[in-house]
Predict the 3D structure of the following.
Amino acid sequence: LRSFSRIGGIILGGILIVQGGGWLLERKSFAGSNTELIHEYRSELGKHFQSQIHLVQAIASELSLDSLTHQGLAGDEGALKLLFERCRISVDAHLSQNISITVYDTEHTAVAWAGRPSRLTTANFFQDEKIFLVGGAPGLTLVNLEPVFASSANRDSPPKPVGTVATEWTLVPTGVTRPVLSPDIYQLAERNI
């Protein structure tokens, strides 16, 4: 009976040593990796967010300088039809990013749009920030406002605003049960530890 308890004690001691060693090895191997992974994830997410901001700014800037936008805001019906098509083509080119575009006149009335834009209030056009978040029917949305200025022959006088281009990126769509952004964006490369 003594040898049986002795063998049981040795086996139990061996199990505890192996488990303790495994636990220490795991702590040593993975102690900083969670922090590193979280930092890397935040960095990648920040880069993605910045690239989306640059995308909506680039689309808005391009449209605000486009002669078609100026002609549409001046009331040219033919140009307005083409402006709708131009907005749709821009949205379709970035379909996976949930981009929307709206061209507003000086009264903040939408004159052309594509995608699923938010309802912006008059207050949105008068706030200091030109990039902001709104909630609404499409969901949580990042909005970028880009003023459209009339061409001025007189360089000494400030350009007159004739409208605004609003580009939007829906971050969290309403009623979506699956992720809108590909999970691949947030997956980090596998590492050998």
Notes: Strands lie at 99-105, 110-114, 131-134, 139-149, 161-173. The radius of gyration is 28 Å. Helices lie at 2-30, 33-65, 67-73, 77-93, 122-126.
